[in-house]
Amino acid sequence: MKKYFQFEELGTNYRREIIGGVTTFLAMAYILAVNPEMLSSTGMDKGAVFVATAVAAIIGSLIMGILAKYPIALAPGMGLNAFFAFTVVAAYGIPWQTGLTGVFFSGIIFIILSLTGIRETIINAIPVQLKYAVSAGIGLFITFVGLKGAGIIVADEATLITLGNFTQGSTLLAVAGIVIAVILMVRKVPGAIFITIILSTIIGMLTGVIEVPKAIVSSIPSLAPTFGVALDPILNDFSSLLNLKFLIVVLTFLFVDFFDTAGTLMAVADKAGLVKNNKLPRAGRALMSDALGTTIGSVLGTSTTTAYVESTAGVAAGARSGFAAVVTAILFGISLFFFPLLDVITSAVTAPALVIVGILMVSSLKLIEWDKFEIAVPAFLTMIMMPLGYSIASGIAVGFIFYPITMLLAGRRKEVHWIMYLLFFVFIAYFIWVR
Fold first, then answer.
1. Are 193 and 181 in contact (CB under 8 A)?
2. How many independent structural domains does the chain possess?
3. Is residue 324 part of a domain?
4. Transmembrane ranges (predicted)?
5. If 297 and its partner were Cys, which of 56, 107, 226, 314 is the partner (CB 3.0–4.6 Å)?
6. How far apart are CA 349 and CA 77, in angstroms?
């Protein structure tokens, strides 16, 4: 075991890897509560989504740990689950079953790209400034979703949105949770988001805002309501998938997952000291782990599975090898028996997690060249149109339309890859026939 995971070469041991794996789990365990809560709003069975979330995290983390040998855990990604629930299903009117098919196709394409050199071409084609803007925009979007779900902001006829009613118990609970989360994050407490969810749930129970669970552990909920549903349209009604709207859904899932994974891999590996000559060893295996996790996760019944930047918490605690990811996977397996505790969690409890993750994602704004207007325009529009348009896809589309235009006007047309010109026309068609 030590030899396979290269303990001696990496200067690590079982104790450091186990502590690192546990720390990573605590840092990302909030997804067990947030993902079922978010996806169940589409009509999906909450218990089945909980199991799909945990099992996807188990499989993805095991593949990453054993195949790619990186201390990086995987689970259904934040932002992509919001896109699934609030854009694909709520805004586009696509059934959640077909949405899962879109995730499945994006996973298959990701696998193909990971087996070829095409992935490098695509990564190089998308300007890094727009990648930062997409990340920041998703951060704003999921924060908006969290605040809206908690009742902290509500609809208003005169101003579109306004502050909610702070005399409501659920809203006050969300505010208390955000305060707790901020305190824990500032104090750099490991697993701050997960601890916030636990403390908020306890406060909610004590104040009567949340129901007290009837049990702590139970048998694992059935996966039947979601298992294999992603394959139904392919086998029974493939013609329903032959439209531009479905293509945009697949491309958006693929795009966000592709670059989110690449960025996370580099960030975590760099913190662990695993990057060699500005290159990531076994990068193909790492990307393949993500692609397989997404494909398998869609069949189980959850949105896109991706690498978690929270893995940096485990690295900071000492993790250096894939054994830490295996430890995290084992803990996700144990969590399957604690569904009764998570079943009572509401949007008021998960709101702080969305806000904190949003803050962390928006930090990429500092890397954008705001002093260059031809960059600032598409970057800003990409970012701002996600929450205002209540759609990650719309934000990406607007930014990718304006980028070639502003670069041409600035006399920098040679810096624009031909793929960006192709995407320009794709997204123009998106607004004409889809939006």
1. yes
2. 1
3. yes
4. 18-35, 47-67, 74-94, 100-118, 130-154, 166-186, 193-210, 246-269, 321-342, 349-368, 388-409, 416-433
5. 56
6. 18
Residue at 2 is within a domain: no
When the pLDDT of each residue in the chain is averaged and rounded to a whole number, the result is: 88
* H or E element that contains 76: strand 74-76
- Residue type for 423, please? L
Total Cβ atoms within 10 A of residue 420: 17
Residue with more model confidence, 255 or 108: 108
Contact 52, 301 (CB under 8 A): yes
State the Cα–Cα distance between residues 394 and 245, nearest whole angstrom: 12
- Provide DSSP, 111-179: HHHHHSSHHHHHHHHS-HHHHHHHHHHHHHHHHHHHHHHHTSEEEETTTEEEE--TTSHHHHHHHHHHH
Q: What is the reported pLDDT for 261?
A: 75
Residue 239 lies in a domain: yes
154, two tokens: 């509500």
- Give 48-68 pLDDT, tens digit per residue: 999 999 999 999 999 999 999
Q: For the chain, what is the total number of helices (H) and then of strands (E)?
A: 20, 4
Cβ burial, residue 167 (10 Å; 0-12/13-18/19+): exposed
Placement of tokens 């079953």 in the chain? 97
Q: Are 376 and 410 in contact (CB under 8 A)?
A: no
- Looking at the domain assignment, is residue 278 inside a domain? yes
Strands 74-76 and 160-163: unpaired
Write down the pTM of the prediction: 0.79
169-218 tens-digit pLDDT: 999 999 999 999 999 999 988 778 888 888 998 999 999 988 888 888 88
Per-residue pLDDT tens over the stretch 317-356: 788 899 999 999 999 999 999 888 877 778 888 888 888 8
**What is the DSSP-derived secondary structure letter of residue 416?**
S
Structure-block tokens of residue 259:
């670059």
Alpha helix (H) ranges present in 151-228?
169-186, 192-207
Q: Which domain holds residue 58?
A: 7-434
